[in-house]
Task: inverse folding
């Protein structure tokens, strides 16, 4: 292994490897990937597979020629393709596989999030291979992750993995899309993911891929923030897997951060979606950014959107409109309209009741700063 300290690995396999001809599942690339999984397990690694391909595997059952598939048809394709894909994977192994279908709604609900973690641990404890995909048959825009690169990063985080390996149809991250620019060169190592790195990424070029390189960089950003090394490799090439087993890097490695975010803060920053915004004054911005304070109602000048207590929100500077932080609001939008600008000691008289716990609107432990001033 590239890093001998890896104990648990999430392997993400894209649709182009599952159904390369868009004509149902093919064993062509699945066999070498399955052999890699077997070798990893023999070396004592725990493996979780995140497999795309339900839509691509089911597509040929429907006589539909256009590139853009309506969502209702996609759900039907996923329903038939998912079971065929599971069948294919199961036939590749002499140990049991478990199907785990998730949506973003599951990962962003704290109780379901913990259930997912516990289930994955139980499966791994019993040497069963978890095979995860988005639950495409029921997913709506509101509850879906939308691409399996980000899903795999969330799975790696919830499972406390040491490494995320994304098997794509290119060797790794290039200086430009290698399918469009013949001069593009492979970047072997990335230590910091910034706007320059995002600027290199183009969209998907295959007929079945979702997201292209951008979603892979997003996934790497999520995973590395939790200390998880992230690797992009070409899953078509059996040599790429041999390289990893021999301790070499065949693609691009994004190194996990040495000081990972605490799990709750990581979940707030990288899994929860903001349902609304709280706009605050300059004094509040300084208290949050310079003094490490919790957000109190006295600094709030406006509220945008509808949200409940427990929902994630963005905190924005009312004067400059900059995003300052993301966190979990302990009050709903309508409660905040009644208490904004007031001192915390006025909350009970403004609302007519006393909220449980502290008076902080967003407690420091549930807030992530998005920029420093
Ligand atoms: N900077 C880049 N480096 C490598 N590939 C890139 C880059 N920008 C865009 N791409 C495209 O991203 C594609 C891989 O993403 P995608 O088609 O979504 O595949 P997958 O099924 O593996 O998720 C590549 O085939 C390539 O055309
Ligand atoms: N969940 C979808 C795959 C979504 C996706 O991200 O696909 P890909 O870019 O091929 O990894 C499916 O199984 O068809």
Result:
């Amino acid at each position: 292994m590239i890093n001998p300290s890896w104990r648990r690995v999430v392997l993400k396999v894209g649709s182009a490897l599952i159904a390369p001809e868009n004509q149902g599942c093919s064993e062509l690339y699945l066999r070498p990937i399955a052999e890699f999984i077997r070798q990893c397990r023999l070396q004592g690694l725990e493996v979780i597979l995140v497999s795309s391909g339900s839509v691509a595997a089911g597509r040929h059952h429907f006589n539909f020629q256009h590139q853009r598939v309506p969502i209702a048809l996609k759900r039907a394709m996923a329903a038939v393709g998912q079971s065929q894909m599971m069948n294919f994977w199961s036939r590749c192994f002499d140990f049991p596989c478990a199907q785990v279908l998730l949506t973003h709604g599951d990962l962003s609900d704290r109780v379901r999030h913990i259930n997912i973690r516990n289930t994955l641990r139980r499966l791994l404890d019993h040497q069963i291979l978890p095979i995860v995909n988005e639950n495409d048959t029921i997913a709506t825009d509101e509850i879906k992750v939308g691409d399996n690169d980000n899903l795999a990063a969330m799975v790696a985080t919830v499972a406390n993995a040491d490494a995320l390996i994304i098997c794509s149809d290119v060797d790794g991250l290039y200086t430009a899309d290698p399918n469009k620019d013949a001069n593009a060169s492979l970047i072997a190592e990335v230590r910091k993911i910034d706007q320059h790195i995002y600027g290199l990424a183009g969209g998907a070029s295959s007929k079945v891929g979702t997201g292209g390189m951008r979603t892979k960089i997003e996934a790497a950003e999520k995973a590395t923030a939790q200390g998880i090394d992230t690797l992009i490799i070409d899953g078509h090439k059996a040599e790429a897997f041999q390289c990893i087993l021999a301790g070499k890097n065949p693609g691009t490695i994004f190194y996990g951060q040495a000081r990972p975010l605490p799990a709750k803060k990581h979940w707030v920053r990288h899994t929860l979606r903001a349902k609304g915004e709280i706009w605050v004054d300059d004094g509040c911005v300084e208290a949050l950014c310079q003094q490490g304070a919790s957000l109190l109602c006295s600094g709030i000048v406006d509220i945008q959107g509808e949200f409940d207590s427990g929902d994630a929100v963005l905190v924005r500077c009312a004067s400059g409109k900059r995003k300052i932080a993301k966190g979990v609001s302990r009050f709903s939008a309508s409660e905040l309209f009644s208490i904004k600008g007031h001192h915390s000691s006025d909350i009970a008289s403004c609302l007519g009741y006393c909220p449980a716990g502290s008076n902080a609107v967003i407690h420091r432990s549930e807030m992530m700063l998005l920029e420093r001033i």
About this structure: DSSP finds 14 helices and 13 strands in the chain. Residues 14-15, 52-56, 78, 133-134, 136, 147-148, 208-211 surround VHF (ligand 2) (CB under 6 Å).
